[in-house]
Each structure stands twice: as C-alpha cells, then as structure tokens.
Write a structure and sequence with these properties.
Blueprint lengths: L1 E4 L3 E4 L4 E5 L12 H9 L7 E7 L7 E7 L5 E6 H13 L1
Antiparallel strand pairs: 1-2, 3-4, 4-5, 5-6
Length: 95
C-alpha cells in the first residue's frame, strides 16, 4: 500500500505508523467516568468499508495524517494533515 503524504509525496506504508480510527474523542479525564474512559480506550469498531484513520509519518516529515481508506480494498480516498482536520473540527464546534 502506498500513502500520498501531503508534504513528502507518495511513500510506502512502511514509513508510517498506524494508530487507528480517527473518530473517537478522548473524554475529559477530570470529568469523565471510569466507564467512559474504559470505553474510549478499549472499545473500538472494526468496520468493513471506508474509515478515517490516524497515521504518523515516522520515516519522513513526522506529521500526523488522517487517511480515509477502504478497509476491504486498502484503496485510499484522501490524506489530510491531522492538524487541519482538528482545526476544522474545533471551528465547527465554535459555530
């Protein structure tokens, strides 16, 4: 599988580290219940189809990326810098 890094261009997936689903949001550790923290850490879906994932370009620019990928075919639809996704998420919450 090849991943097109927005900063370095197309690279082999061996240059990247996979973190997992990009959707879960960490509960506030001071306000969250033990059950909410447990669910965040241990309970994850394993969908067959399109998912947004976090990848780290360890052997390149060292950027976190959000990769939209089909888990059945490994076809990559898009790659975005994670900071841009986080900024868009925050501005959407502020609206």
């Amino acid at each position: 599988m090849r991943i097109r890094c927005p900063f370095c261009g197309e690279r082999d997936n061996g240059e990247f580290s996979y973190l997992g689903d990009a959707a879960p949001r960490r509960p506030d550790g001071l306000e969250a219940s033990a059950q909410a923290m447990h669910d965040y850490v241990y309970l994850r879906d394993n969908p067959a189809g399109t998912i947004r994932e976090l990848w780290y370009h360890a052997a390149g620019c060292r950027s976190w990326l959000v990769v939209t990928r089909d888990t059945r075919t490994h076809a990559i639809e898009s790659v975005e810098p994670a900071r841009d996704v986080a900024r868009a998420r925050r501005s959407g919450e502020a609206a």
